[in-house]
Amino acid sequence: MKDFKIFAGSSNLPLAGKIAAKLGMPLAKIEIVRFADSEGRVRIEEDVRGKICFVITSFSNPVDNHLMEFFLICDALKQSEAEKIIAVIPYFGYGRQDKAYRPGESISARVVTKLIETMSIERIVTIDLHSDSVASFFDIPVSQLFGLSIFQSEIEKLKDDLIIVAPDAGGAKRAQSFAEKVNAPLAMVEKKRNLDKIHELETLNVIGQVKKKTCVIVDDIIAGGGTVVGAAEILKKFGAKKVFVCATHANFIDGAKEKLANSSLEKIFVSDTILVPSAQLFSKLKIVSVDQLLVEAIKKVL
Q1: Residue 284 to residue 266: CA distance in whole angstroms
Q2: What is the C-alpha to C-alpha distance for residues 163 and 39, in angstroms, rounded to an integer?
């Protein structure tokens, strides 16, 4: 492989450390300072002249802080004459804002992609974008990895009469891909989201035969938990025996832990694209790492 270095933003140091270790190297030295007024400062502490530099960071909560930190890291690498900068963004915050849902709204995902392109980045490596349209906003190559694949072995261990469930129409393609991996049929929950009240939705119906089956809801993000908990409730009403969830990004907001822990869900599988703080952990939650998935992607780029 070519000479390269791996830098990490502050959003998910444990994941970056695991990736670097699997590639047989330490994380490159970088100073990241946050001043009392919330401004950030970044300094590269290694010689990167003529080297390929990977920057690993998730645009997770607080999203704007991590996004600005990422820009500062990339600029510092440019000023230090890195040969190439490749962004590894396990979780792409703003990815759900890929269209104007109401008149007068900004298309935030497009704004973020254009800002990223000003950093002279060679390529983006990311996992399970909420919408494929986000990748189309970029004029640079985007390698989007299928993060849900890391849950395949966990689901196959259930050894039950499985059916994979899309929690809404928007997730049908994602759920279909996972259903094909585990060789199971597909069902879908119909829902109606209230655009005027954030995180509120009304579940309507189930398309598919779920009676007496073990349902596995597949989604890209869990935020408040309302989507998967509501889906689990209606699946139970339609006769499901057990309900599990696989979601790539654990973007938990306040109240999500309690809602998920007290739900009828048997277990919630998530990845470590977003660092889940210890206060958000609970017995039903199992975290599966995407480290090997990203290691393989980095090797392909090299």
Answers
A1: 7
A2: 48
151 φ, ψ (degrees, to nearest 5): -90, -5
- Is 213 assigned a catalytic role? no
Q: Count other C-beta atoms under 10 Å from residue 182's C-beta.
A: 17
φ/ψ region of 255 (left if φ > 0, alpha if ψ in -120 to 50, else beta) reads left
Residue with tokens 């645009």: 59
Q: How far apart are CA 246 and CA 244, in angstroms?
A: 7
Interval 84-141: pLDDT, tens: 999 999 999 999 999 998 999 999 999 999 999 999 999 999 999 998 899 999 999 9
d(CA 207, CA 114): 39
Nearest to 222 by CA among 78, 36, 100, 60: 60
Question: Exposure string (b/e) for 230-254, b if CB count within 10 Å is 16 or more?
Answer: bbbbbbbebebebbbbbbbbbbbee
Q: Which among 80, 90, 79 has a CA at the least distance from the CA of 18?
A: 90
Cβ–Cβ < 8 Å for 56, 6: yes
Q: Provide, for the chain, the percentages of residues in helix, strand and coil under a 3-state DSSP scheme, each rounded to the nearest 5.
A: 35, 30, 40
Taking a C-beta distance cutoff of 8 angstroms, is the pair 174, 182 a contact? Answer: no
Sign of CA dihedral 41, 46, 50, 52: negative
Q: How far is CA 261 from CA 60, 158, 168, 198, 257, in A?
A: 22, 20, 22, 21, 6
In tens, the pLDDT along 1-13 reads 678 999 999 999 9
Residue 168 pLDDT: 85
Helix, strand or coil for residue 266?
coil
- Alpha-carbon distance of 107 to 99, in angstroms, equals 5
- How many angstroms separate the CA atoms of 234 and 229, rounded? 9
Q: Catalytic residue, from 191, 213, 242, 257: name it.
A: 191
Distance CA 180, CA 157 (A): 16
